[in-house]
């Protein structure tokens, strides 16, 4: 069962599901569901100027990777695919902006977005061929401190050329997702949906059992909500809030954005605004923050729920019907 696959991956501890092991599993699942898979190494990431993703993985001895999974033409995903982007931080220590030891417990689950996307694609094939072209882009990294780790204040160049000031290395998810979103958008998809355990403030707003939806496209947002109701998973929209965009502007040389809003409030909203900078305005896009419902329990007893898998699979089937 696909939900069980997501739970298995999310519950695996950081030494059991390293970036290398995770990408091996992605290749394995891709073969099982008849999809094409490409795993890009650090040399490819440097060549394509994915400095955000590389920066987040730079403190770890584990290699950073970008995995693609799709159906359709073998050489490249088809134009007009639905793009799914899932955050794949296999362990989040906070990097040099180090978390407390208590806050680090459970951070092996910070790859729940990528696991959810992969499992939804597997679910989509349970009843035969997938009903529409789907292109998954999964950035995979381990966020650790180290002598080569990205430093607070460093400026990185993301795919497409936007410079980002990394004010806080514990706001890592949006930095690596920036490259993945821009790359997914470059394939001219019909829509982009990203899934991430991104902000604690989504839990503050909605509690631990409701997923947050934020996005520019109201029709796509409504489709996600309807799919969630059909799948018996609860989502709630938080506002698209461009009035807070100034909080993301950077004055650092070479940077137009910063990954920290400089405010303790509205961080779920400014996180979505940051991500939206990497998806062209003409592409329907919505962001799903599953920081709360992706897991249940606390501390060492944290367990994955598989939340979001059924919603995504249901959504894709509904989109296929037009």
Automatic annotation (TrEMBL):
Keywords, A to Z, come to: Aminopeptidase, Hydrolase, Protease
What InterPro entries does the annotation carry?
Leucine_aapep/pepB, Peptidase_M17_C
Q: List the GO terms this entry assigns under cellular component, sorted alphabetically.
A: cytoplasm
Q: Which GO terms describe its molecular function?
A: manganese ion binding; metalloaminopeptidase activity
The signal sequence is none
Does the keyword field hold Protease?
yes
UniProt lists the family membership as follows: Belongs to the peptidase M17 family.
Function of the molecule: Presumably involved in the processing and regular turnover of intracellular proteins. Catalyzes the removal of unsubstituted N-terminal amino acids from various peptides.
List the PANTHER family.
CYTOSOL AMINOPEPTIDASE, LEUCINE AMINOPEPTIDASE-RELATED
What name does the UniProt record give this protein?
Answer: Probable cytosol aminopeptidase
Organism equals: Aeromicrobium camelliae
């Amino acid at each position: 069962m696909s939900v069980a696959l997501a739970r298995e991956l999310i519950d695996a501890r950081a030494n059991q599901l390293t970036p290398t092991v995770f990408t091996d599993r992605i290749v394995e699942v891709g073969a099982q569901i008849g999809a094409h898979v490409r795993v890009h190494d650090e040399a490819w990431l440097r060549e394509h100027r994915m400095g955000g993703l590389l920066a987040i993985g730079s403190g770890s001895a584990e290699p950073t990777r970008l995995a693609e999974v799709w159906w359709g033409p073998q050489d490249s995903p088809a134009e007009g695919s639905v793009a799914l982007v899932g955050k794949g931080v296999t362990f989040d220590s906070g990097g040099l902006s180090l978390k407390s030891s208590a806050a680090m417990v459970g951070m092996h689950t910070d790859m729940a977005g990528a696991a959810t996307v992969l499992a939804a694609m597997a679910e989509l094939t349970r009843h035969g061929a997938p009903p529409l072209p789907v292109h998954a882009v999964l950035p995979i990294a381990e966020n650790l401190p180290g002598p080569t780790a990205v430093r607070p204040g460093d400026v990185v160049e993301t795919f497409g050329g936007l410079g980002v000031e990394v004010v806080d290395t514990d706001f890592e998810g949006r930095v690596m997702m920036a490259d993945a979103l821009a790359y997914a958008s470059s394939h001219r998809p019909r829509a982009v949906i990203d899934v991430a355990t991104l902000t604690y403030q989504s839990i503050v707003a909605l509690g631990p059992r409701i997923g947050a939806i934020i996005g520019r496209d109201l029709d796509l947002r409504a489709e996600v909500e309807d799919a969630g109701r059909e799948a018996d998973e609860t989502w709630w929209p938080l506002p698209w809030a461009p009035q807070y965009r100034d909080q993301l502007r950077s004055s650092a040389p070479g940077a137009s954005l910063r990954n920290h809003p400089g405010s303790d409030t509205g961080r779920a909203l400014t996180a979505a605004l940051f991500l939206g900078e990497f998806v062209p305005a003409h592409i329907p896009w919505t962001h799903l923050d599953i920081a709360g419902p992706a897991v249940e329990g606390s501390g060492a007893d944290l367990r994955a729920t598989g939340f979001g898998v059924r919603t995504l699979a249901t959504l894709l089937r509904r989109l296929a019907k037009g």
